[in-house]
Write a structure and sequence with these properties.
Layout: E1 7-11, H1 20-32, E2 39-43, H2 60-87, E3 95-97, E4 101-104, E5 107-110, H3 111-119, E6 143-151, E7 158-170, H4 175-194, E8 225-232, H5 253-265, H6 276-287
Parallel strand pairs: 1-2, 7-8
Antiparallel strand pairs: 3-4, 4-5, 6-7
Helix pairs in contact: 1-2
């Protein structure tokens, strides 16, 4: 707790664009009954932040979020204990209330006042709490992806006309960010399914090290019917029921598009990218 009654959160997990900082802040703000702008966050700085195994394998919300959850619970406990001394009441008579205060039947104490009293010359000192999280359990995310494609059998060109992605998200801590991750993950996986390929010569030199020759999906490649939806699940393991979904959302496009190509043409293309050349060759082989 800082001197003005706001909070400074240090987390070891690095936000790689997944919104992990926001998730951790929202978890802390929810427990401590404050607005999100009352919680500053410092992430992934080994000089000042605690250890974290890394932001990978769909572990950010679950592990870093749970560590922030535990730290916030410990902070809440210390706030109530210090407030009980100041207000001269038992801890069980106190609760936290919005926006950032401790209340009892006989009165209240704002976080700002609490910070001033604890950090003054006669106070007990700055309120600092820590939290960690380790486990052998994992809230496995699930998803279902569906693709509708148009295949030109004369050229082998594949166009994704529709794509629907449905992801088990537990209880999403930040639904907007979660949906953004899903849309981005699907477009990314459509890219490596249909376009993206590094080409090397016999000496191992990459022949297409630029975005003119190395094709990536653009706004023009977004399917006409493109939908991502979060499927709420009563998850018991994650913080507030949350779980990570970003990584699994990249796994659906390749099999969904491959199945759609088969449904349209009767041929399987099993090695991506599913270029027009590969699709046309497979169609010709089937006919012969």
């Amino acid at each position: 707790m800082l001197g003005d009654g706001t909070f400074f959160l240090c987390i070891g997990g690095a936000d790689l664009g997944t919104g992990l900082d926001t998730v951790a802040v929202k978890v802390v703000a929810e427990i401590l009954m404050v607005d999100q702008d009352k919680v500053a966050v410092k992430a992934g700085d080994t000089d000042v932040t605690p250890f974290d195994v890394g932001s990978y394998a769909s572990s950010g919300t679950y592990f870093t979020g749970a560590a922030a959850y535990n730290a916030a619970l410990n902070m809440k406990k210390k706030i109530l204990e210090e407030s009980a001394k100041i207000l001269n009441v038992s801890v069980d008579k106190l609760t936290l209330d919005y926006p950032g205060k401790v209340v009892s039947d006989d009165g209240e104490l704002t976080y700002t006042k609490l910070a001033q009293l604890t950090q003054s010359g006669k106070g007990t000192g700055q309120i600092i709490a820590t939290g960690t999280f380790t486990t052998e359990e994992s809230p496995i995310p699930y998803g279902a992806h569906f693709a509708k494609v148009e295949v030109n059998e004369l050229t082998g060109t594949v166009k994704v006309k529709a794509f629907h992605a449905y992801q088990d998200c537990g209880t999403p801590i930040n639904p907007d960010l979660a949906l953004g991750q899903m849309y981005g993950a699907v477009i990314k996986s459509i890219g490596h399914t249909l376009y993206e390929q590094m080409i090397f010569d016999e000496k191992g030199k990459c022949l297409n090290p630029n975005f003119l020759d190395y094709k990536v999906p653009t706004i023009n490649d977004i399917p006409e019917d493109f939908r991502s939806e979060l499927v709420f699940v009563d998850e018991k393991l994650g913080p507030f029921g949350g779980k990570s979904i970003s990584e699994i959302a990249t796994n659906g496009a390749a099999p969904a598009i491959a199945t759609a190509i088969y449904d349209a043409t009767g041929v399987w293309v099993r090695e991506y990218p599913f270029t027009a050349e590969k699709v046309l060759e497979a169609i010709r082989e089937k006919k012969t």
